Amino acid sequence: MRSFAHRQRLQQRGLAREEFLGRPVIAIINTWSDLSPCHAHLRERAEAVRRGILQAGGFAFELPALSLGEVMVKPTTMLYRNLLAMETEELLRSHPVDGAVLMGGCDKTTPGLLMGAVSMDIPVIYCPAGPMLNDRYKGKTVGAGTHTKKFFDEYVAGNIEQREWIQLESKMTRSPGTCNTMGTASTMTAMAEAMGFTLPGATSIPAMDANHVRMASACGRRIVDMVWEDLKPSSFFTRDSINNALATYMALGGSTNAAIHTIAMAGRAGIPLSLDDMNAVADKIPVIANLFPSGDKLMEDFFYAGGLPALLNEIRPHLALHARTVTGKSLGENIADAKNLDEDVIRPLSHPVSAGRALAVLRGNLCPDGAIIKPSAASPKFMKHRGRALVFDSNAEMLAKIHAPDLDVDENTVLVLRNAGPVGAPGMPEWGNLPIPKKLLQRGIRDMVRISDARMSGTHYGSCIVHAAPEAAIGGPLALLRDGDWIVLDVAARILNVELSEAELAARRAQWTAPPRFTERGFTRMYVEHVTQADKGCDFDFLMGTAKTPEPPIY
Ligand code: FES
To answer: Distance from first CA to last CA of the chain, Å, rounded?
Structure first.
């Protein structure tokens, strides 16, 4: 009865039986929308995917999904990553689908789509949006994210006038495509490639390059074969492929956000992954991709240098080369012909971009469950620091006070933002790169130690300690800090402490009362009731693990 209804209703669309009977049914899950500029080309690109599916003998249909344009969604797309993951899983479960091409790229879409696909575990291939094009300004290459932050600081300091700022706005975002620094989008798509979810080299292709169109149609052709081969995520998304992704993360100097997303993705496959596992990989692999914010090049330069396959070739000794991928071949086979065409952009392991590593996991009485810092994008002088805390209870309070001329702050102050975590904000926005107070900007100060239970943009830089867990809103130690407390940071020793006795902390804890929570209604209510902390990936507790939803009854 059900298959009859499916056949009948497809014919209602004007399709002949021979166009779909006996063919693998492939969904194109597309996160295009008018408010996702990074995905602006995915509507058109879906047609290239469809072309490939039809060429290979499949039957294609497109399913729109939550678009999550990073800068358009308030308070943060992170609040909705799990919603996209749920949507992806349920779209794949509830429709008659044999396999899917997943189309995304802007920060949360990659983990969201892949988390859902791993949980559903049918054949999928990832078609990444690709980075936007570079532009030039006053003879210098400029892009989105890192440059935005740098220029904005100069604007606040009074070194850039409003007329120039308006010109710069469009210069930094030249075309559709994801941010062209090694921000969260490029980190996550590259890690997806290293995990085996994309065609080789797919993630480095600029969004507006004809190669990108060809890659999209190749995704369509390949998914049809993957269905016949029954090549599901569980066949290749393993501990080895996750380790390959972590090695990639460190070599790229990737976004701090990747730590959260990778734990969440691994959790969907029932693979335990901890911050300490990541720290161990960061111990071994230096940053070799000379890309903003750790370096000074952009993704278009990375593509010309050979892209991700060339970088993977450089870190070959650290990879599980036998790990399978969507090509049906191993990662080692996929990168066999890769060549590094520019050793200034993709450095050999012997000549890293930075003495600082991509990630250091800190612990101490301020973050017993961990916090992270990205030393490669921070000031070396702050890697060992002792300073007095200046504490803000909310982002609104911080924004209201940070540029006040009488703010009690100097360059050694440690700025602290709390109640900005998964439950507190809610959704853990990218507020962790607290602005430098205007009065210090005007004195030429461009970095300070900052601590929060929030996240920070992968495109940003600075001595920011983020993801402090447990977060303040559920009683984590950041909640106990007061202005003037002495904070000690020692990145080499992996320590973040406040100089307070256990007795003093206990006394403050006894006085602490939880801030009000959003518990009124809807998705946000479900979010605050079920989201896990940063060290657990911020997934919902009921979505972690490999338990399967039973198939709905067939009528
Ligand atoms: Fe979409 Fe940066 S805003 S990738």
So the answer is: 7
Q: Is 476 in the pocket of ligand 1 (CB under 6 A)?
A: no
Cβ count near 155 (within 10 Å) = 16
List of E strands, 65-106: 99-104
Asked whether 430 lines ligand 1 (CB < 6 A), one says no
User: What is the whole-number distance in angstroms between the Cα of residue 189 and the centre of ligand 1?
Assistant: 12
Rounded CA separation 357/376 (Å): 5
Is residue 319 within 6 Å of ligand 1 at its C-beta?
no
DSSP per position, 453-503? SS---TT--SSEEB--SS-GGGT-GGGG--TT-EEEEETTTTEEEES--HH
CA–CA separation, 184 and 106 (whole Å): 8
CA-closest residue to ligand 1 atom 3: 70
User: In angstroms, what is the span from residue 243 Cα to ligand 1's centroid?
Assistant: 25
Model confidence over 341-398: pLDDT tens digits? 999 999 999 999 999 999 999 999 999 999 999 999 999 999 999 999 999 999 999 9
Query: Could you say which residues of the chain have pLDDT below 70?
Result: 1, 552-555
Nearest to 123 by CA among 94, 82, 90, 92: 92
d(CA 199, CA 532): 32
Residue to mutate, 70, 132, 182, ligand 1, most ligand atoms under 8 Å from C-beta? 70
Choosing from 107, 175, 257 the residue with most ligand 1 atoms within 8 A of its CB, the one to mutate for a pocket test is 107
Q: Which atom number of ligand 1 is nearest to the Cα of residue 38?
A: 1
Q: Are 56 and 220 in contact (CB under 8 A)?
A: yes
Chain center to CA of 206 = 18
Q: Cβ(179) to ligand 1 under 6 A?
A: yes
Strand order in the sheet with 384-392: 464-465, 449-452, 414-417, 384-392, 486-490, 495-498
Q: What angle do CA 40, 43, 47 make, to 5 degrees?
A: 140
Task: Name the helix (H) or strand (E) containing 125.
Answer: strand 124-128
Question: Structure tokens of 344?
Answer: 């200034």
Please indicate whether residue 77, judged by its CB atom, sits closer than 6 Å to ligand 1. Answer: no
The total of other beta-carbon atoms located within 10 Å of residue 230's CB is 11
Amino acid letter, residue 439 = K
Distance CA 134, CA 149 (A): 16
Backbone angles phi, psi at 487, to 5 degrees: -115, 140
From the CB of 70, is ligand 1 less than 6 Å away?
yes
pLDDT of residue 514: 94
Determine the 3-state secondary structure of 447 from DSSP: coil
Is 251's C-beta closer than 6 angstroms to any atom of ligand 1? no
Nearest in space to 454 (alpha carbons), one of 439, 480, 476, 436: 476
What is residue 488's predicted lDDT score, i.e. its pLDDT? 98
- β-pair partners for 489: 385, 496
Query: How distant is the alpha carbon of residue 82 from its chain centre?
Result: 13
H/E stretch holding 63: strand 59-64
